[in-house]
Design a protein that fits this description.
With about 400 residues, the protein is mainly beta. It has five helices and 16 strands. The strands form three sheets. The protein has a twelve-stranded antiparallel barrel with strand order 5-6-7-8-9-10-11-12-13-14-15-16. Strand 8 and strand 9 form a beta hairpin. The longest helix has 18 residues.
Length: about 400
């Protein structure tokens, strides 16, 4: 009890000391007041001549309380006698343990565990700028050739094989580089021909290359290279004369201009149209005897002809339906002194995956060739065929 009283007295002392100071809040003053109890024992110890309390701490607390009793009696509200008369504290209430009321509820479901992320393999593929394709066929055909066809030949029944390869580069930004190689070779036999057992009726070796820089949506600045000749010698029936041969003629054409990319009818009609206002055509004839037949004025040391002019080329493919496809190629060149026009048309009828029928129509104009009394400078070739075909 004495110990509790000392701690209480210390607290009251501090409260009394603080009450003597003034604090300001919003410009107003207030005082701290702490109610005190008058303890007889404190007064007795301080007023006695000889104190029997050797504890210096207790003496200091008593002095502090006595100082309050004498200087601030208004803070003393009760005496020790009055407190004893009020009774002692109920120890049963203090000692009784406090039990917290706990209400049980249903256990909440645990949070779902986040699935661990499976390792993902990232594969970065290099963009495919190159596209490659091709087609070929081996067919039997009925062939018609006009009497003045510049490479010779005659109407007959024969067989022909063709192979077309393409490798095109497109960086999906500005540049394109198209490469196309066409090879055709056909042989025929004729009962009326007593000189030749076999002779060619279709002979072509042609390369077309184009480098394009995009100028607008479907327009490209284009440099086009066209080179073509044939594989073997060309004859006419019952005639030992050679009318054409490998590198006789050989044509090499370079054109600078613009190209338009065609896409129409829901992309069923596709292809390109090339306009080259600046073009150079180089024609070489290895056989001197054939030079004049191809417009080359030659001597013993010259076998070539170089023309400057303009040209138009077009290559289109129209898939009319799942069965019929039309492929056309147009080539026109003029040096303003001579003109040359070729228009190839192939109508392909697909019978099955590997069987197809072709109708080939080829009008040609060349005023550097010999004049014909019936057709003039026009030449015409036609054949229809049926056989095997394959696309890849």
């Amino acid at each position: 009890m004495k110990k509790s009283v000392l701690f209480l007295a210390a607290f009251m002392t501090l409260s009394a000391s603080a009450a003597q100071e003034k604090d300001s809040v919003d410009g107003q003053y207030f005082k701290l007041f702490a109610p005190l109890t008058f303890y007889h024992e404190v007064a007795g110890d301080q007023l006695s001549i000889a104190s029997d309390n050797p504890d210096e701490v207790s003496q200091a607390i008593d002095q502090a309380l006595m100082h309050v009793y004498l200087n601030r009696p208004d803070l003393v509200e009760a005496t020790e006698t009055e407190q004893e008369a009020s009774g002692e504290l109920r120890q049963d209430i203090i000692e009784q343990p406090i039990v917290q009321a706990v209400t049980m509820v249903d256990q909440a479901e645990p949070l779902p565990e986040a699935p661990e992320a499976d390792p993902v393999e990232v594969v970065v593929e290099k963009p495919k700028f190159w596209t490659r394709k091709g087609d070929g066929y081996l067919q039997f055909m009925q062939n018609y050739v006009s009497g003045n066809w510049y490479k010779g030949g005659e109407s007959n029944y024969s067989a022909v094989g063709s192979l077309t390869l393409e490798a095109n580069y497109d960086n999906k930004s500005k540049w394109r580089w198209d490469n196309k190689l066409e090879m055709k070779l056909g042989f025929q036999t004729s009962r009326t021909d007593t000189v030749h057992k076999f002779k060619t009726n279709e002979d072509l070796f042609r390369y077309t290359g184009k480098v394009g820089l995009q100028a607008a949506n479907k327009w490209y600045y284009t440099l086009q290279v066209l080179a073509y000749t044939q594989f073997a010698r060309g004859f006419r029936a019952n005639n030992v004369k050679t009318f054409s041969d490998f590198m006789s003629p050989f044509n090499f054409n370079v054109g600078l201009g613009m190209e338009y990319k065609v896409e129409a009818f829901d992309k069923k009609l596709t292809g390109t149209i090339n306009l080259s206002p600046l073009a150079i055509n180089y024609r070489y004839v290895d056989r001197t005897a054939l030079a004049s037949s191809f417009g080359v004025k030659t001597d013993k040391h010259t076998h070539s002809l170089t023309d400057f002019g303009s040209q138009v080329t077009a290559g289109l493919e129209w898939k009319m339906n799942d069965v019929v496809t039309w492929k056309t190629r147009l080539y026109a060149f003029t040096s303003y002194h001579r003109a040359e026009l070729e228009w190839e048309n192939t109508f392909a009828l697909r019978v099955s995956k590997y069987i197809s029928a072709n109708l080939f129509l080829f009008p040609r104009f060349d005023d550097s060739n010999m004049w014909d009394d019936d057709l003039g400078y026009w030449q015409f070739k036609e054949y229809s065929s049926l056989g095997f075909s394959y696309n890849f």
